[in-house]
Amino acid sequence: MRTPYYLIDEAKLHANLRVLADVKKRAGCKILLAQKAYSAYKTYPLIRKYLDGSAASGLYEARLGFEEMGGETHVFSPAYRADEFEELLTYADHIVFNSCAQLKAFGARAKAAGKSVGLRVNPERSTQEGHAIYDPCAPGSRLGVTAGEFDSAVLPLLDGLHMHTLCEQNADALAVTVVALEEKFGAYLPKMKWLNLGGGHHITRADYDRELLVHTVRALSERYGVQVYLEPGEAVVLDAGYFVTSVVDVVHNGVDIAVLDCSAACHMPDVLEIPYRPPLQGAGAAGEKAHAYRLAGGTCLAGDVIGDYSFDAPVKAGDTLVFEDMALYTMVKTNTFNGMPLPSIVLRRENGELCTLRSFGYEDFKGRL
Ligand SMILES: *Cc1c(COP(=O)(O)O)cnc(C)c1O
């Protein structure tokens, strides 16, 4: 198999889906795939057996969810465009607005088309430190209507409320945010049919407190008579994918640097954006094993560096390296900066068979320009 390629592990995806299905059953909630994190739609037939549908960030994801996932299609966008709204109504059944002004402008049309209408609210309760880029409750955030901006004139149009405040968090953070949600918006909840608690719930992680999630969700459903939705992205494909690359050259400048046939900037941008050091099969932290290398991308961006690792044996050109937990926020974020090729997408089926879902070439680079 020619590197680089993303490898989706069907058995692990399946295991995650079973965990989510169990949560659904015990909590009485519905769960949607947030396609923003993962949109490899050729695996949607499996996901559809366990989840209730998809969540979209706009027109294209809504169309993909409608056409390839089926079930319920929910959409939230920070701002809907007037010239797309009509088409959006053909795909989405739940439309969540980000402001009272947009809800007033488009809500009646959505209702007339038979859609369920929601408003994203901002409980203004941050539970994450450090990563303001992923904190919708950070000061000055555009995401969600604050209690101060809430205009009760929109209430007759509303079927549901939506909040999304978490990122890779446990159920304790949800519980804290729910207290703030109830303080600020609890008075409206008895009038609602549904409450969407967004994504960022790391439900399939080994140390995730699923009992607390189930308890929190059940309590909300019972107190307010609402159907609760969760729309995780990461949790659906957590640890269910790899990124397989090869070493092209090894250079030296104070440290040994292995230059790979991939790029953090093009193929795993969260490594630079968050930033973080992705796990690598068989490797340790710098200094842990005998042979230390900095792993770097094949673009001319000086900062295209994946991280410092150590190995039992020297690394040489032609070696294959396997980064872990690479199904989420990778395939959906790739670009061809520097004319870098897009990695193929390969599925390892549960029976071990490898199946190339998609490969790319020069035309995919040229065709966007
Ligand atoms: C990003 C996002 C999600 C999914 O978040 P994960 O961290 O991938 O679970 C769900 N809903 C909304 C509105 C989002 O912006």
User: Could you name the CATH homologous superfamily of the largest domain?
Assistant: Alanine racemase
Q: Would you identify the regions where 5 or more consecutive residues have pLDDT less than 50?
A: none
Number of domains: 2
Largest sheet: 9 strands, mixed
CATH architecture of the largest domain: Alpha-Beta Barrel
Summed over residues and divided by their number, the pLDDT gives a mean of 97
> Quick one: CATH class of the largest domain?
Alpha Beta
Give the DSSP E fraction (strand runs of 2 or more residues): 15-25%
Give the helices and strands, then pairings.
Layout (H helix, E strand, L loop, with lengths): L4 E5 H18 L2 E5 L9 H5 L4 E4 L2 H11 L2 E5 L5 H10 L2 E4 L2 H13 L3 E5 L39 E3 L8 H15 L8 E3 L13 H15 L2 E4 L3 H4 L3 E13 L1 E6 L3 H4 L2 H4 L10 E2 L5 E6 L8 E7 L8 E5 L19 E5 L5 E5 L3 H5 L3
Parallel strand pairs: 1-16, 2-3, 2-9, 3-4, 4-5, 5-6, 6-7, 7-8, 8-9, 11-13
Antiparallel strand pairs: 1-10, 10-11, 10-15, 12-14, 13-14, 16-17
The structure holds pyridoxal-5'-phosphate.
The site of pyridoxal-5'-phosphate (PLP) has 15 residues, from α8.
